[in-house]
Write a structure and sequence with these properties.
The chain is of the alpha+beta class and 117 residues long. The chain has three helices and six strands.
Amino acid sequence: MVHAYIKGILVNRDIELVSSGFHPDFTMQVLDDNQIIKASLDMCLQRLELDERKNENKIEYEFKFIDITKNSAVVRMEIFENSKHIYTDYFSLYKFDNGWKIVVRYSLHMNRMSILT
């Protein structure tokens, strides 16, 4: 999670890091106007336009909750940018032969609502 999500998306903006930790069937789900909007990994990656330009802002994170049962896990993580709380993320993961993969993310952005961030 740290490599694929924090370093891959938020810090280094590196598609290879992202791909290493997200399952190809990943979906992000967002509640918007009382409806659930789903975005695939491809949709998220297109929107993010990962260009390997390092984010110069200070990114910090805290794992608030981790529950693992066999090959399944749920994680709650809080993300901070320049010491400001910007996201509370909830992830579901499965452990495959090649390691843990993020399969679902739903998120609360602390300042705005967006279907892809």
